[in-house]
Amino acid sequence: MKISSRSSLWTVFIIAAMASPAIETKAQLFKKKKQQAAETVPTRAPLQPGQFEWQPQKAPSGPLLIVVSIDDQMAYVYRNGTEIGRSTVSTGRPGKETPTGVFTILEKKKEHESSIYKGAQMPNMQRLTWTGIAIHAGDLPGYPASAGCIRLPLKFSELLFEQTALGATVAITQRSRYPSQSEKPVSLLLATNIDESSAPIPNRRPFWDPNKSPSGPVSLLLSIGDETLYVYRNGVLIGQAPVGIAPGPPIPGGLSIMLNGVVPGDNPLVPGRPMRAWSVLTIDSDETVKEFPINILRSRIRVHPGFAKDVYDLMQPGSLLLVTREKSTKDTRSGSGFMIMNPE
Predict the structure, then answer these.
(1) d(Cα 62, Cα 259) in Å, to the nearest integer?
(2) Are the CB atoms for 4 and 186 separated by under 8 Å?
(3) Which candidate, 249, 195, 210, 205, places its Cα nearest to that of 228?
(4) Would strands 52-54 and 134-137 be described as parallel, antiparallel, or unpaired?
(5) pLDDT in tens, 20-37
(6) Sign of the C-alpha dihedral, residues 269, 200, 251, 1?
(7) Mind listing the pLDDT tens digit for each residue in 83-101?
């Protein structure tokens, strides 16, 4: 899945009937501007090249998310929606730029030597693509200097390596950090670059076949343009269903991650099941969003109850959800730039 200046198609909400806990993200993204000014977290001192902060005790459990900002030359680590660390980085130099997008960790090795640049040591390597992009320890001169990888301070790379697992989510953005306070924060909504065998089925025709991909991370794509919810596991389309959308203002696009735990309230999509907790990572909207996006979805969208139950049972903390107002055509799926869950 992806993110970029031009919305992509993806993910969604539907299933867990979502409401979000009272976390900073909600306050930062969706208050009126006057309220935002009063509630903004105080600016922290900038870190110098090679410096980092690490406070894993702030969130002992929950899904882990790593966000890398190329413009900031910073990495931010979140667990269960709470920032537990930040570090300076060095990303790809001109001509060898680090790709932007949403990736998963494919491989981990404490001691690794580059197969592309012979002799180049990559301690605490965490692979994001099979074509040479990884997170690892390295020199940090204070500007983009790598051949595309994301370099970290050695000690921070060790601490992070201990906390991550295969399949953990890494979002690489060109600008801004998460969470963002702007109405159109990070250009994180691009096009999904999925295998042609996983292309959406025309005419919103429903199907459900989880055996097509028995394991792996689950991602949801809600295309407002298609009025269809698509379910992917390990990058393979395993289900889709039409959705009903109640009249009202345009629904904002955005990317969210499921957290641990549940929140109070009646679940309108899967009656009798608790509502899951979500954290919104980025919003794509032409207007200021004054209500928590998950709540907007919960109140405006309906899907067949049997399909909603199947998807609800499949979702786990760490599952991603993307809402886009674009259609899921080949054109909107195959743009350049932002990758989502595509190791190639």
Answers:
(1) 6
(2) no
(3) 205
(4) unpaired
(5) 333 333 333 333 333 433
(6) positive
(7) 899 999 999 999 999 987 7
pTM: 0.64
Domains with residue ranges and CATH for the chain: 14-31+184-333 (2.40.440), 42-173 (2.40.440.10)
Tens of pLDDT, residues 123-132? 999 998 888 8
User: CA separation (Å) from 295 to 16, 151, 260?
Assistant: 11, 38, 18
Please name the residues in contact with 30: beta carbons below 8 A apart, sequence gap of 6 or more.
289, 290, 291, 292, 293
Residues 6+ apart with CB under 8 A from 141: 49, 90
Q: How far is CA 253 from the centre of its chain?
A: 13
pLDDT of residue 204: 62
Render 120-164 in DSSP notation, one character per residue.
Answer: -B-TTEEES-TTS-EEEE----SS--BSSSEEE-HHHHHHHHHH-
Q: Give the chain's count of helices (H) and strands (E).
A: 6, 19
Nearest to 101 by CA among 139, 162, 148: 148
